[in-house]
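Task: sequence design from structure.
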């Protein structure tokens, strides 16, 4: 298979990766944010492939910028860009941010990266992380350090997902034979003279690559430059990947840790134009001995640092677990305090309700007592009324009897002779003439 077919096959392998695509969709459904990686021009190539993948699955996440400790605070799900920032004693770019984020209960997805010595750091939060390794050695190391197999997966570096359209219009001329790009930072072990090599990626260093507009211009400029050469010799992994994607011949040299060889063994070896050389060429015996001695010292120092780091990690894991338990205890105590407050409020409300019901009961009893008193008073008044009615009836009957007696006496008087005589006597006084004379004589006599 030629480079083009292999490139399409690798892209399809990434696109159809069942765990990667399902994990990204799951995080997208939970409003995850994307935390782009920091680094040099090689990291821009990773970011470009990542953005192409996001575009193909129809996801346009919000980006989180910055590298302060609390940069991920306020988010529940974070997708972290891939790269090489997980190497103890060398690159530890994201430790503080991620540990604090995980301690706060966040869910983290780390896109294909290399790992060395971080398994023990992530192990306490294994249920909260989904990790993709871009090569076998990192995967094996994380599993050996105790990470569960259902949280760690293999997937090619997302730089291989970069689409052809970004560089298809560039002319690959190949006018010059060899371009050497060797590291001049902490990872470099080759020592070419400044006239033989240029560390091109360091022209753009410590950048957080987040958008197409940020990634494409410098990458296209670099691609246009390197496409003027037939062959590239480099210990820069992503310069090797970029050259390979352009179809150029690449001779890859090792750096001071396993990353380049591991990625070559996992993905790059499939491209016929890429090859890996274990040792640098062109050094004198004395330089090679000195270089070997320096590498040995570096390895011993790194080994000691890793042992110290491992011991520190074991202690800090215990402390973090204690802190986590203490935090949980404080949270439980706070919840119990809140529950106690709510219980007190409910009890107070219940007591108030009981007091109100008791007051209402007493009020009802008072009302019933008053009703009883009123009923008794009413009964007494009814009894008095009945007595009064009886007395009135008796009085009425007595008056009627008295009236009847008087009427009978009156009838007796009226029927007597004297009454009749009196009637005649007074009749004479009402006669005209004689009556007036008689009234005058009576007046004189009674004088």
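Answer:
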């Amino acid at each position: 298979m030629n480079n083009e077919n292999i490139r399409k096959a690798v892209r399809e392998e990434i696109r159809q990766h069942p765990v990667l695509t399902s994990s990204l969709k799951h995080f997208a459904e939970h409003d995850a944010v994307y935390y782009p990686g920091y680094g040099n021009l090689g990291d821009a190539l990773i970011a470009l492939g990542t953005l192409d993948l996001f575009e193909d699955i129809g996801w346009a996440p919000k980006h989180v910028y910055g590298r302060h400790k609390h940069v991920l605070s306020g988010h529940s799900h974070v997708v972290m860009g891939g790269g090489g920032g997980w190497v103890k004693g060398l690159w530890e770019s994201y430790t503080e941010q991620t540990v604090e984020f995980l301690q706060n209960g966040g869910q983290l997805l780390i896109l294909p990266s290399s790992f060395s010595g971080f398994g023990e750091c992530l192990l306490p939060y294994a249920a909260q992380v989904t990790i993709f390794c871009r090569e076998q050695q990192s995967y094996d190391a994380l599993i050996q350090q105790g990470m569960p197999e259902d949280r760690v997966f293999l997937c090619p570096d997302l730089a291989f997902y970069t689409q052809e359209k970004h560089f298809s219009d560039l002319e690959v001329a190949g006018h010059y034979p060899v371009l050497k790009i060797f590291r001049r930072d902490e990872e470099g072990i080759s020592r070419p003279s400044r006239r033989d090599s240029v560390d091109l990626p360091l022209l753009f260093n410590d950048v957080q690559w987040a958008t197409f507009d940020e990634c494409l211009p410098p990458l296209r400029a670099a691609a246009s430059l390197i496409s003027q050469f037939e062959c590239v010799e480099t210990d820069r992994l992503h310069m090797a990947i970029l050259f390979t994607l352009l179809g150029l011949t690449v001779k890859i040299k090792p750096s001071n840790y396993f990353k380049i060889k591991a990625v070559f063994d996992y993905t790059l070896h499939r491209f016929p134009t890429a090859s890996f050389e274990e040792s640098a060429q062109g050094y004198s015996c004395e330089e090679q001995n000195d270089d070997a001695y320096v590498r040995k010292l570096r390895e011993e120092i790194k080994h000691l640092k890793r042992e110290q780091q491992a011991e520190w990690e074991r202690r800090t894991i215990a402390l973090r677990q204690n802190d986590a338990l203490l935090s949980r205890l404080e949270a439980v105590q706070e919840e119990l305090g809140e529950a106690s407050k709510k219980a007190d409020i409910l009890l107070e409300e219940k007591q108030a309700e009981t007091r109100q019901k008791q007051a209402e009961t007493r009020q009802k009893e008072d009302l019933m007592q008053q009703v009883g008193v009123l009923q008794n008073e009413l009964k007494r008044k009814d009894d008095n009324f009945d007595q009064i009615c009886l007395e009135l009836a008796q009085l009425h009957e007595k008056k009627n009897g008295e009236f009847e007696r008087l009427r009978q006496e009156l009838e007796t008087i009226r029927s007597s002779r004297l009454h009749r005589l009196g009637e005649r006597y007074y009749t004479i006084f009402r006669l005209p003439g004689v009556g007036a004379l008689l009234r005058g004589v009576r007046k004189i006599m009674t004088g």
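The first strand starts at residue 33 and ends at 35.
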